[in-house]
């Protein structure tokens, strides 16, 4: 349950940041739509499409790079020498760790972005012209509240 509840909040924030950046950089959104139209047409995206949608992948990686969604994590270390399958992990080995939900998050984010932007385009709300990319602080970060105009593409 921890993975799913943490994943929901981080994916929600990541998707909000993606929408924000597509509003701020409409030329990138146009290229995103072109790639989706070229490779998917009107069929639903699947995870098999990841290998063909390089621009989508680049956008997702850039959103993850620019905005650290979970900037504060619990420190990890191994309390005793451990063997896990064929891997030996020495006591107090403070090396780079990765989120156990990262693989799921990458795939779900890919499906969210491709499905949403295949059907919709996002635009700046003229009543909300000042958009900020500065994240709101917290255990997880999210964009400042903003309004967007969402239009069906078809």
From TrEMBL:
GO terms for molecular function: heme binding; iron ion binding; oxidoreductase activity, acting on paired donors, with incorporation or reduction of molecular oxygen, reduced flavin or flavoprotein as one donor, and incorporation of one atom of oxygen. Keywords: Iron, Metal-binding, Monooxygenase, Oxidoreductase. GO terms for cellular component: cytoplasm. Pfam families: p450 (PF00067). GO terms for biological process: organic acid metabolic process; xenobiotic metabolic process. PANTHER family: CYTOCHROME P450 508A4-RELATED (PTHR24300), CYTOCHROME P450 FAMILY (PTHR24300:SF375). Belongs to the cytochrome P450 family. This is Methyl farnesoate epoxidase-like. It comes from Diaphorina citri. The gene is LOC113465836.
């Amino acid at each position: 349950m921890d993975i799913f509840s943490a994943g929901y909040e981080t994916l929600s924030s990541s998707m909000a940041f993606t929408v924000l950046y597509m509003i701020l950089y409409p030329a990138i959104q146009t290229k995103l739509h072109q790639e989706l139209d070229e490779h998917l047409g009107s069929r639903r995206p699947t995870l098999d499409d990841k290998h063909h949608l390089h621009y989508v992948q680049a956008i997702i990686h850039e959103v993850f790079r620019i905005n650290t969604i979970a900037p504060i994590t619990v420190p990890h270390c191994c309390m005793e020498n451990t063997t896990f399958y064929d891997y030996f992990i020495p006591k107090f080995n403070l090396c780079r760790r990765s989120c156990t939900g990262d693989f799921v998050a990458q795939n779900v984010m890919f499906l969210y972005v491709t499905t949403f932007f295949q059907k919709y385009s996002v635009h700046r709300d003229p009543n909300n012209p000042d958009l900020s990319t500065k994240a709101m602080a917290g255990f997880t970060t999210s964009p400042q509240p903003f309004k967007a105009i969402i239009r069906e593409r078809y």
